[in-house]
Fold this sequence. Notes:
- This protein is α/β, with parallel strands linked by helices and about 375 residues long.
- It contains 14 helices and 12 strands.
- The protein has helices spanning about 15-25, 50-60, 90-95, 120-150, 160-175, 185-190, 220-230, 240-245, 250-260, 265-280, 305-310, 310-315, 325-330, 335-340, and strands at about 5-10, 40-45, 65, 65-75, 100-105, 200-205, 235, 280-285, 290-300, 320-325, 345, 360-365.
Amino acid sequence: MSFNCGILGLPNIGxxxxxxxxxxxxxxxxxNYPFCTIEPNIGKVSVxxxxxxxxxxxxxxxxxxxxxxxxxxxxxxxxGASKGEGLGNKFLGNLSNVDAIIHLVRCFEDNDITHVNNxxxxxxxxxxxxxxxxxxxxxxxxxxxxxxxxxxxGKKVDQNFLETLEKSRNFLEDGRSLRNLGYSESQEDLxxxxxxxTYKPIIYVCNVDENSLIDxxxxxxxxxxxxxxxxxxxxxxxxxxxxxxxxxxLESEKKEFLESIGLQETSLSKLISKGYEILDLITFFTSGPxxxxxxSIKKGTFVPDAGAKIHTDFKTGxxxxxxxxxxxxxxxGGEAKCKENGRLKLEGKEYIVNDGDVITFRFNI
Length: 365
């Protein structure tokens, strides 16, 4: 199972340009007219992790494999999308399959790039998209409730099922996103299964011009204030600059360019890390002479389920897990020295994996 982030926004705000820069490809057409992207473009991006580099050196690994995040370029949504405007239903359907949302917002002025509403107004743009997501969820929840009642007419109903959905419907009718609704654990498990759009984690990304990348501008500051009020993430990026950077072949060229505009790392690197963060992911490692590899799991994952990421046999035949913290692995110089110094722990099925654990699985089929 891979984790993915959908890049969402109005038409002509730089989604496809950003996607191309992220994946260093030209898969997504970038043209100055609405709906040039019809089918969702999907690309995988490595999540660079210095810890894996260090583990690979210590283990003298032949191969090194980073975590990957999937990014999905969703075609531009417009007002009325939930009712089918601009192929909206299809685009919203594509969005239901992503794990988190990157809402790209136009925060630059450019007379050569048309705005679908003929003016740059980031908060209005955010509200247009937010309303469409909310209306889509409301319609879906009402349909589920109606179908469930019809199917179970005269029968005993699942009260938790109905209460969860009715609670969600009332919240949506008040114009509030489901991620702000406090669910019980059982209700949360249920609501996750419906892939409702306003329940998904979201981050606002301000697409700014080159001169505004460090300090922002009047538009990005409005978005930052809006997101802070709602305890949501927000960051700045210049899709145009990132597109230029992705064209450099040599790392030295990238570094020189970044330094010339006052940056230490690309905004894309920050965005990839932020995507990892809003998905509530952590990393564990496997490391040996053949391969060092990073693996993505959700926080709170039990060690047999982490093993299943590698192979289902690791879970079904789980015996024990040999666990070394990343810090100890580096400090003592590898697995053998960690064993000698009592830093290798044997953990059972109830062990919850920590970020940075280096794990060897014992299993038997």
